[in-house]
Each structure stands twice: as C-alpha cells, then as structure tokens.
Amino acid sequence: MSESDTVLVGLADGVLEVTLNRPDRLNSFNAEMHLALRAALTRAAEEDAVRCVLLTGAGRGFCAGQDLGDRDPRKMDGPPDLGATVRNYWAPLVRQIRALPMPVVCAVNGVAAGAGSSVALACDLTFAAQSAKFIQSFSKVGLIPDTGGSWNLPRLLGEQRAKGLALTAMPLSAQQAADWGLIWQCLPDDALMAETRALAARLAAGPTFGYAATKRAIQAAATNPLDAHLDLEEQLMKACGESADYAEGVAAFLDKRQPEFKGR
User: What is the pTM of this model?
Assistant: First the structure.
C-alpha cells in the first residue's frame, strides 16, 4: 500500500475520507498521487470498517487532471505515450472507483478540469460547491476526454451537450451541471463539506449489502439488453433477500425501531 502526503486519508464512523492534496498544483495528478489514491481505494475495498468513501480536494480546486509538467514533449526525447498513461493510471483508477462495493461520494470543492472532472463523474454521488466549475479542458491541448469522460458525458447529457463541452472546453457552472443532471447536487460553498459528510455518514450506517447490489444493477443497465437485465435483477434480489441486512430492515420496520445494518 502506498503512503504519500499527496493523498490524505482518514476513517471515522465507517466513512473513509480521501483528500487529494497537491493544492499548489490544483491537485493535478503525478505518478505518486495516482498510486496513493489507488492504495486508499484498495483499503476501502479490503477493510470491513469502511462502508462509504468520500473523495474531495484540498485548497481552492478539486482536481486539474494530469500534471502536464510530467508530460511536456519539450523535456522528452520523443512524444509521450499518453495511451500508456491512460492504460496504466487513469483507466485502472476509474475501474477501481466503479468496482467498489460501497457508495463513493464526491465533494467537488473547486474547479474540476480534464481528468479531474472525469474522476468526479465516475463517483456514485457527486456534490459541487456553487463556485465550482467543470471544464473539459482536453481540447485546449489537442486531446480527447479520457478517464471515462467520453463514455460518461453522452450518457449523462446527450451527444450535443457532450460534444459542445468537449470541443469548446466551455466551463460549466456547478448549478448548470446539476440542472443538466451531470451531478447530484450543487450546494452553497460553506455547506458543501458538512452536507456531504452528513450524507456519507448516513450511507455508511445503511444497508451496504443492498447498496452494492444497487450499484451493480444501475451500472450494468448502460449496456444490458432488457431481458438480461431482468435476469440480473432476479439474481441480485435473491441475494439481497437472503442477506442479514434485509432481515434486520424488515424486523426494524415491523418493530418500529431504527435498524442496525451490518453490510452482510
């Protein structure tokens, strides 16, 4: 497991709070930061005490994507292999976020640009401060939206809006992102972390066995035909019905008390 001050990690009440911590570089990623974030997410997947992940950024920005200082052709013998960067760093990160069995909540505290925007959108529930902006900045340097950006944008916004944002690099306000359905909620700046942490704590105390199945079903819906998806729902509902969380939820409802879910 990689330890680095480029990513800060703390666990409390079932919530693993992960903070991108290169504020002097708007939390842009270098190799060290990639490995540290992946180590934190591996901890979330392997540690039973982790029941929700909260991802945010330090300083005035959430994440400016890739640190281009590490990919400057002027400092290299030849052009950088950006395909290798995607293959070795960005694609595994998105796969890891999407595969986590617990909710992943994102608090976008400032600008989310390039791959930073894509990382925020890979999370399950994305909140943004009112002053935050989402920028598909790839076109400014002749690139495509990666880190799942070219997959997520048209599914969330439709082809026209996806192409508009990708081709023009127009900043999208947090409120517009919420209005368009790109993110879950836009919040006042001074309420962002308190409200996001409150939701993360509530999710961590919830029936996380069912949450994992819900994530799997919704994520599969993008590519499943209806018949296959109905079969998947049957399988997941069977597993949920056999879980201790379901038994506890029903018992608590009938007993008129608060449930105590264990995630099993």
Answer: 0.94
